[in-house]
């Protein structure tokens, strides 16, 4: 493959954009990232004209793939040419909020913002304002965006910022606990319960290789929040309208969070976020309450149109059947390959998410392999080796992924997330042929 033009663009980018990019993970692979030119269905064409089967899908938002259906495109264009924004409320914001509230069990009311980061920032402020407490419990190694309250590492006893630029005193208010460890969460509440405003957790850790909850874990967090008067915030920025279909992951796991953060799919490919939940809590945002929240672009008509029409299209067509069935084919195909070629690796995912986890946990020569689409099933032969926390996955072979595996897939025309911790996503634009081509490439690359 020729990557000359991407190389030239990267050289230019380096002098005007830090690291050559506007989001760190885009340049995780050396020597430089391919620059995108356009998309077609489940495929992406780069600046040199190379075609890839694209399993990144914009890091999750593109549920329908790169070719938006006519009904989505025409609504985007109608709203883009009508203003395109006003600094006034519009009907489309109300319609979008009504759609989400109708389908997501715990959501009665929501506030739209412009990114998943903004959603988790506002949700933590809301929880602090609502409870009058300061501390937030998060999962070690989880990702909730570029949020000063969640970029924290350590444990219940000692913690600090995980990046330069966040005051240590600030990080003191965030308590990281290991995912899937009910005792650690209980201990955090025993020590700090009266100061804990909220637990912020993804239903499935989707930025750490995909780690599923063990049985009863979310129920424990729900009970702890109820017992101590803290809020349970589910971050469904990735899982929202992907896992569990239109009801989101909370309908699949049958858990009722107090607050849910959304992003990605609900903007149909345009910048978006939202904080949803019970009216009593969400109405604490200004102007009906006293927790300040505002944004020039929030509820932007073009974003609202793209997101709402995407969700309507998904409701009226076989979108979830299609993406989930291809997801299942990818996970079972990968499991077969792993069984033959790389038994120590784990295949994880659910619905339209899939991931091969390069874990060093466990023996490399086991004959029993992961049963596929890891759901923390205790009867699976690899249950003990399947990652339970974000930290388990963080011990993976970064170099092997970045220097060998990812480039080997790319050279075969398969585009995976550049960061080895992130999930891959199936879209409505993908086909059975894309799945076959991808599995053949995995076989070769492994
Ligand atoms: N929360 C989760 C679970 C995410 O995966 C992300 C981003 O990937 C965010 C929040 C932040 O969203 P954004 O990148 O739109 O700010």
UniProtKB/TrEMBL annotation:
Cofactor(s) this protein cannot do without: pyridoxal 5'-phosphate
Entry GO terms, CC: cytoplasm
Keyword Cytoplasm in record: yes
Signal peptide: none
EC number: 5.4.3.8
Pfam families for this protein: Aminotran_3
Main location: cytoplasm
Pathway: Porphyrin-containing compound metabolism; protoporphyrin-IX biosynthesis; 5-aminolevulinate from L-glutamyl-tRNA(Glu): step 2/2
Modified residues (N6-(pyridoxal phosphate)lysine): 264
Subcellular location: Cytoplasm
Catalytic activity annotation: (S)-4-amino-5-oxopentanoate = 5-aminolevulinate
SUPFAM superfamilies membership: PLP-dependent transferases
Keyword annotations: Cytoplasm, Isomerase, Porphyrin biosynthesis, Pyridoxal phosphate
NCBIfam families: PRK00062.1
Similarity field: Belongs to the class-III pyridoxal-phosphate-dependent aminotransferase family. HemL subfamily.
Name of the molecule in the record: Glutamate-1-semialdehyde 2,1-aminomutase
Organism, as annotated: Halolamina pelagica
Source lineage: Archaea, Methanobacteriati, Methanobacteriota, Stenosarchaea group, Halobacteria
Gene from which this protein is expressed: hemL_1
